[in-house]
């Protein structure tokens, strides 16, 4: 879509060029970023800007009647009442999950709009989840009440059924560790990583000396020399790509890996296209 260009000539003869973006219909469209100029940690990444990834969810765990809470995982907003996250993010004994939408700076500063918190009514863990292999590391969180979409709270789009993203450079976001065994950021981090073919990924793990099996339901992303990756705490968050129409689609959700950003050990994600029927069977989303 060509944007309308308005050129203003000021009295000082300086020329200001302003692009007027097509209005973003965030109440009806998935995958749009109302707060980004352009319209049409994570290890080795950079801090995002407020509202840049409006489907990013912070999954918190609350124990002892809410007396103790901790940031547990990332998540992805799929609709006004469903968040997808990793199955290994399910709450511990006598604990429950809380989803925070529109979050950005965990220290509470640097935010121009308030975040929206919802208790999780129901956790649907994939019945095939295997903690030993991380097979089917997905869970859907049904929110206690629906959220209102806003400029900083928008659901992501799902990919087409057989869409293949191999070789494309995707973005992963989260509040996870800035390096393996390191600290956590306060501002949401983003990093770009290429999607790796499964057989190439399998070879990489073998090269690194790991016997791990790369299932067809997995998707790998990262570099042979490491450097950029998701890490502990990013789990459940989005790996995503911009479609030609400028809207964003969910390629995968952060699942696991061996260490973070280490050579020949790319990050492992749950492949969204593989799980579309499962996601649809619970949420109704096409
Ligand atoms: C984790 O522990 C984790 N390098 C998540 C992602 C990656 C590694 C570990 C990917 O949650």
From TrEMBL:
Source organism per UniProt: Gryllus longicercus
Q: Which UniProt keywords apply?
A: Disulfide bond, Hydrolase, Protease, Serine protease
* GO biological process terms, semicolon-separated: proteolysis
Locate the coiled-coil region(s) and give their ranges. Answer: none
- EC number in record: 3.4.21.10
Q: What is the designated name of this protein? A: Acrosin
Single GO term (MF): serine-type endopeptidase activity
Give the catalysed reaction(s), semicolon-separated. Preferential cleavage: Arg-|-Xaa, Lys-|-Xaa
Pfam families (alphabetical): Trypsin
Per UniProt, residues of the Peptidase S1 domain are 42-284
Q: Which InterPro entries match?
A: Peptidase_S1_PA, Peptidase_S1_PA_chymotrypsin, Peptidase_S1A, Trypsin_dom, TRYPSIN_HIS, TRYPSIN_SER
């Amino acid at each position: 879509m060509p944007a309308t260009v308005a050129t203003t000539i000021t009295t000082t003869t300086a020329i200001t060029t302003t692009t007027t973006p097509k209005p973003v219909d965030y109440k009806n469209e998935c995958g749009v970023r109302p707060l980004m100029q352009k319209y049409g940690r994570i290890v080795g990444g950079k801090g995002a800007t407020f509202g840049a990834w409006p489907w990013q969810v912070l999954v918190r765990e609350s124990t002892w009647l809410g007396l103790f809470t901790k940031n547990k995982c990332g998540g992805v907003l799929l609709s006004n009442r469903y968040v997808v996250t990793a199955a290994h993010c399910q709450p511990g004994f006598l604990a429950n999950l809380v989803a925070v939408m529109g979050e950005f700076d965990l220290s509470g500063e640097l935010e121009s709009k308030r975040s929206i918190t919802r208790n999780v009514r129901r956790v649907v863990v994939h019945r095939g989840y295997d903690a030993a292999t991380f097979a089917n590391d997905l869970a859907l969180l049904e929110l206690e009440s629906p959220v209102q979409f806003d400029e900083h709270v928008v659901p992501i789009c799902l990919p087409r059924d057989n869409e293949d993203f191999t070789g494309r450079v995707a973005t992963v976001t989260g509040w996870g560790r800035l390096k393996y065994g390191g600290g956590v950021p306060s501002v949401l981090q983003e990093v770009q990583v290429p999607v790796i073919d499964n057989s190439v990924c399998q070879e990489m793990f073998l090269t690194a000396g790991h016997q791990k099996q790369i299932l067809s339901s997995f998707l790998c992303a990262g570099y042979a020399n490491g450097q950029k990756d998701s890490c502990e705490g990013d789990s459940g968050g989005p790996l995503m790509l911009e479609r030609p129409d400028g809207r964003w689609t969910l390629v995968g959700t952060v699942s696991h890996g061996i260490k973070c950003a280490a050579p020949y050990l790319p990050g492992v994600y749950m492949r969204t296209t593989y799980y579309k029927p499962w996601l649809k069977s619970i949420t109704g989303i096409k």
